[in-house]
Amino acid sequence: MGTINSLGSERAAVIAVIDPDVTTASTVTSTYASMVLFEQVMAVVQSGTLGSSATLDFKLVQATDSSGTSSKDITGKAITQMTQAGTDQSDDQAVINCRADELDVDSGFDHVAMVLVIGAATSDASAILLGMTARYAPASDNDVSTVDEIVS
């Protein structure tokens, strides 16, 4: 499918989310999305208002199925920690790109999830995982069920 006349929603799908919310100091993991239908993913984390002395860590992990079996980190797919005390304060974003061939596919790892860790203080944050370069178009056929509407 050519990209000049195609819609963004035909080329990218929302395949996992961490809903925008107030998050206590804890770890939140998205659902595990299959990479079988996509050649790459793009994960975007958004910090909202970070609590006093809060930290935000974000990474991608891989697994052998949608239940997260044998989950482990994907090498090099973690952001530099955001801190309220540092230069990456509230209301920032970070992006992680990952190609399907960066997973341990030879060992059966073909699912990916986002892991958001809020440390020290309750903070606002969210994340979205976009499936990119769909093997079959339109990509939006693989959106998570929470996508309410696509306007063209």
What would you say this structure looks like, in words?
- The protein has one helix at residues 8-11, and strands spanning 12-23, 26-29, 33-34, 38-47, 55-63, 72-78, 82-83, 93-99, 111-119, 123-134.
- It is mainly β.
- Strands 2, 3, 5, 6, 7 and 9 form a six-stranded antiparallel sheet that branches. The chain has a four-stranded antiparallel sheet with strand order 1-10-4-8.
- Strand 5 and strand 6 (72-78) form a beta hairpin.
- The mean pLDDT is 94.
Shape verdict: globular
Q: What letter string, H or E per element, gives the SSE order?
A: HEEEEEEEEEE
- Report the portion of residues in β strands: over 45%
Helical element count? 1
Helix content: under 10%
The largest β sheet comes out as: 6 strands, antiparallel
Alpha-beta classification = mainly beta
Unreliably modeled segments: none
**What's the N-to-C terminus distance?**
17 Å
Radius of gyration: 16 Å
What's the number of extended β-strand segments?
10
Q: What is the arithmetic mean of pLDDT?
A: 94
Summarize the structure.
The chain has 152 residues and is mainly beta. The protein is built from 1 helix and 10 strands; from the N terminus they run αββββββββββ. It has one helix spanning 8-11; strands at residues 12-23, 26-29, 33-34, 38-47, 55-63, 72-78, 82-83, 93-99, 111-119, 123-134.
